[in-house]
Specification:
With 271 residues, the protein is mostly helical. It has one domain (3-270).
């Protein structure tokens, strides 16, 4: 059976084990905050603390240079959250997928189930956390009268590109990490540098011209600028600029899927 022929089989297997996947997602969400006094509030407090720190430090420096900045007291916070919340989702998903097979080594050895279930569980769990935080962000925008209106319709399309990119890259790294454990360490360092190489905290116009050219090679930069345009400027993204990250997403989906299919049978022997 060819590699391409395995993909429909893989998705049929995933559907057949949907109860296992959904049950694991539910148990993971409950276990994350079990025994905590604040419970699910920690899913909100952690990113809020990061946003507060960045806002206090950078708002006076960057705020005046925001594109279309009307000088409102929340303009930088809106701009920051528009880039930081999707980035945190991207980084968390890639990090979780990077260790998903190693972290579930005992389950893989003791149980028989399609291995694709594990990345799916990681994706759904991370997506639930992001949905909660992003819903609160929309409430905040509504309270300050800054909902983006029709431009919000573009948000799901941009998010799908990001999810596809994170999923493909994460599955590739997660599979390779089983065989080469340095991949896991490298991914943590990569994500830290990658965040600062993405115009989230700062804006493109504060960078020297030569650095702006380097930022253009970063596939997360057009996605971040699209999010910021939707929520800060209430404008639809430049769809042409998203062709570059879309190409990256498709490439890594194909490469990650191919690597996973080729090596999935050997994963249990390496754990």
């Amino acid at each position: 059976m060819t590699t391409m022929a395995l993909h429909p089989v893989m998705f049929r297997s995933l559907w057949a084990y949907r109860g296992f996947v959904l049950g694991a997602v539910r148990r993971e969400f409950q276990a994350r905050y079990r025994g905590s006094l604040l419970g699910g509030l920690w899913a909100v407090l952690n990113p809020l603390a990061m946003i507060a720190v960045f806002t206090l430090i950078f708002s006076q420096v960057i705020g005046a240079r925001l594109p279309g900045n009307a000088g409102g007291p929340f303009s930088y916070s809106v701009h920051l959250c528009a880039g930081l919340l999707p980035w945190n989702f991207f980084a968390e998903l890639v990090a979780r997928l990077n260790s998903v097979f190693i972290a579930n080594g005992n389950l893989i050895k003791k149980s028989s189930f399609p291995r694709i279930c594990l990345p799916t569980i990681a994706l759904l769990s991370t997506l639930i956390n992001f949905t909660i935080i992003f819903a609160l962000y929309l409430v905040f925008l509504a309270l300050i009268g800054a909902l983006p209106g029709a431009a919000l319709l573009a948000f799901p399309a941009v998010l799908v590109i990001q999810i596809a990119f994170a999923l493909g890259l994460g599955v590739l790294l997660g599979t390779l990490n089983v065989f080469f454990r340095d991949v896991g360490q490298f991914t943590g360092v990569l994500l830290q540098f990658w965040m600062w190489f993405t115009p989230i905290i700062y804006t493109i116009n504060v960078l020297p011209e030569r650095l702006r050219g380097l930022i253009g090679f970063n596939p997360m930069a057009p996605l971040t600028l699209a999010y910021q345009g939707i929520f800060s400027s209430q404008a639809f993204p430049d769809w042409g600029s998203l062709l570059y990250p879309t190409a990256f997403a498709l490439f890594f989906l194909a490469l990650g899927g191919l690597t996973f299919v080729r090596l999935s049978g050997e994963i249990v022997d390496e754990l």
